[in-house]
Structure formats: structure tokens, C-alpha cells
Design brief:
Shape: globular
Distance between the termini: 28 Å
Structural class: alpha+beta
Strand order of the largest sheet: 1-7-6-5-4-2-3
Number of domains: 1
Mean pLDDT: 89
Strand content: 35-45%
Radius of gyration: 15 Å
Helix content: 10-25%
Order of helices and strands: EHEEHEEEE
């Protein structure tokens, strides 16, 4: 996924190229899992360390609890270079609430993380198919996922 279609919201600047590519790949992965079937996305984490990348997913009835648990998994990892957590939720743009995937991630620079958002919704004559809406946006800075 290219950073050409990434929108900046407000004064939030884009992260460095390596972290940006990592987070955009996670957004792409999350979107590809939720858009074809309309959700919900099972929260997941991707952790990149010296031994490569690992994927963690927690299946729970309570998706908020699942998101908390994948965040906890990231906190327990050692030797982390970059990490992110992805989940499904809602975002309001111009007064309209839509489904969206969120990716919160950071690297080992010590700087705060970034939250990326990709909206999706129903389309077509009978609104049976799901499509991506607009560009991926970096919406805010976030607390670090790991130290």
C-alpha cells in the first residue's frame, strides 16, 4: 500500500517511512479481513522484532475485551521494533457515522504512536456489497503500545 493516498487529519504528521509502511500494511490486512464480509474484525496485533514479525489474535465475544487482550500481548513482548493493534469500530466524518477499521501502532523510537483509520460501508443498488470509503487517514497520536 502506498502512502500517496494517506490523509492527514489536523496537524498530525505522518510517521517515518518504515513505520508508515508497517501501519499501512496492517490497515490493508484489517480492511481485507472485514470489507468482504462486513465485519466484525477480530482484534489482532502484529509485532515486529529481531526474530521477524508475529501475528496475534484474540477471539472473544466481547470485542473490547479482545482488543485489551491483544494490547496486553504486545506489552509482554521483548525486543520489539514496531507493533500495532487493529480493531473494528465506528468513525464520524462530516456528521455521518460509518464503520471503520483502526490501527494503533508505534516503533521503538520512544515517540508516541499513531492511529490510522480506514472507513468502509455498504454499496450497490441493494447495499449488499461492502467497499472501502475514501482514503486511509492518520487521525491522531496515541500512547505507546510498548516500552
Amino acid at each position: 500500500m502506498s502512502d500517496e493516498g494517506v490523509e492527514q487529519v489536523g496537524a498530525v504528521e505522518l510517521p517515518g517511512q518504515e513505520l508508515l509502511e508497517f501501519l499501512l500494511e496492517a490497515v490493508d490486512h484489517a480492511t481485507s479481513r472485514v470489507v468482504p464480509r462486513g465485519g466484525p474484525l477480530v482484534p489482532f496485533a502484529i509485532v515486529d522484532g529481531a526474530g521477524g514479525s508475529t501475528f496475534h489474535q484474540v477471539v472473544e465475544q466481547d470485542l473490547v475485551l479482545a482488543q485489551e487482550q491483544v494490547r496486553f500481548v504486545v506489552q509482554q513482548e521483548t525486543g520489539v521494533r514496531m507493533a500495532c493493534v487493529a480493531w473494528d469500530g465506528y468513525v464520524t466524518v462530516d456528521g455521518v457515522r460509518t464503520d471503520a477499521v483502526f490501527v494503533d501502532g508505534c516503533d521503538d523510537s520512544g515517540e508516541p504512536g499513531y492511529v490510522f483509520v480506514q472507513r468502509y460501508g455498504r454499496a450497490g443498488r441493494f447495499r449488499r456489497s461492502m467497499i472501502v470509503l475514501g482514503n486511509t487517514a492518520v487521525s491522531s497520536r496515541s500512547e505507546r503500545l510498548f516500552d
